[in-house]
Design goal:
alpha/beta; 7-stranded mixed sheet; 11 helices; 12 strands
């Protein structure tokens, strides 16, 4: 059994090393002084977000981009309290409309984006979430990259705005690892993951891959399934925008239960990935974390000596730290906090999420999904 766990560790170590190599292959992009040309439609699906939407719309108002080159479509997914943007002073600086979500599947967010597509007049769309804030040069950076590259889909980074709590620090590290894996997979030309809070693609590409057809029975995954379709059919036109001025900021969840359900929602779609690389990496990461948990249990029951467990943990933490460090340098440039405690707790949390996602249900926006 010891040999099996160390074989898993070796495979895990090699896999994360490849992601680190892939991460280094994606060069940072710095926007040029190009005249804006790209017209965007920003799509924001929302449900019960009256508190967050004004902040998002304020960040849109502060965009360093011509207001005649972008419009905003808010898709209301049956909110209990209707959001009236006109009464809050919005709608004058840029074009904005609210449409009601047309539900046709088990995935509210995919339905919301499909609904918005019926109103899109621009070639490019970019999606984000209601609890996000976008930087001033967000659209300008996307536009400059589009002008300089033959591209039909662009994924970009998301980071948290954290307070000084272990819950927030843990979430930041978790998201950092996901962002590192995302960028690394793009660098290896094996893109399988992205974040719908900062995701752009052409309307024509969306139509060519038939939107979310084939995976709309799965509640989440509006981003990854679309990415995997596009990467399979048009690999050279799918890029990652590794630009600091394009990083979108969002909020961490407020409690452990919400975090657990959020990660279960994210994990539940992994088994439906079309990407063999995505499935394989998901399994490797799962078994890598599970082997740490098993090793810890072996330590408690005296099956493993303290020195064997420390050696095992050292090599796992070492390779994790390298990926976390380089990704954190790109995302925030702030010191990683609660690293040791988070690294000890994460394998238990991650293993529980993965196992629960196979059999359990979860809550999302006041609705229940899952088994």
């Amino acid at each position: 059994m010891i040999l099996v766990l160390f074989v898993i560790l070796v495979i895990y170590f090699i896999s994360i090393s490849l992601l680190i190599f892939g991460f280094s292959r994606i060069k940072k992009y710095q926007k040029k002084d190009l005249k804006p040309q790209t017209s965007f439609t920003v799509i924001v699906p929302f449900r019960n977000e009256a508190e967050n939407l004004p902040n998002l719309l304020n960040s849109f108002s502060n965009l360093n981009y011509p207001t005649d080159l972008f419009e905003v479509i808010l898709v209301d997914d049956n909110s209990l309290e209707k959001f009236q943007f006109l009464s809050r002073g919005f709608g004058t600086k840029f074009q904005i409309k609210i449409v009601e979500n047309i539900r046709v599947s088990n995935s509210p967010k995919k339905d919301a984006i499909t609904t918005a597509m019926q109103h899109v007049k621009t070639n490019w769309v970019i999606t984000t979430d209601a609890d996000c804030l976008v930087p001033a040069n967000w659209l300008l950076t996307f536009d400059n990259y589009i002008q300089e590259n033959k591209v039909s889909m662009l994924a970009a980074a998301v980071s948290y705005e954290c307070e000084n709590s272990f819950l927030d620090h843990f979430q930041q590290l978790d998201l950092t690892s996901l962002q590192g894996a995302t960028i690394g997979s793009f660098g290896l030309s094996k893109a399988f993951m992205c974040n719908g809070a900062n995701f752009a693609y052409t309307k024509s590409l969306f139509e060519k891959v038939n939107g979310f057809e084939g995976n709309n029975k799965i509640a989440s995954g509006d981003d990854v399934f679309l990415l995997q379709k596009a990467a399979e059919q048009f690999p050279k036109e799918v890029h990652y925008l590794k630009a600091e001025e394009a990083i979108v900021i969002t909020k961490p969840t407020e409690n452990w239960k919400s975090l657990f359900y959020q990660r279960v929602r994210w994990a539940a779609k992994t088994s439906s990935y079309k990407s063999s690389c995505g499935k394989s990496l998901g399994l490797i990461v799962f078994f890598g974390n599970l082997s740490f948990v098993i090793g810890f249990v072996f330590l408690l029951f005296g099956i493993w000596s303290y020195s064997i467990f420390v050696l095992f943990a050292f090599f796992k933490f070492l390779i994790d730290f390298v990926l976390l460090y380089i990704t954190n340098q790109f995302l925030t440039k702030t010191r990683i906090k609660s690293l040791f405690l988070s690294s000890l707790f994460y394998p238990f949390f991650s293993s529980a999420v993965a196992l629960y996602s196979l059999f359990g249900s979860y809550e999302w926006k006041g609705r229940r999904f899952g088994k």
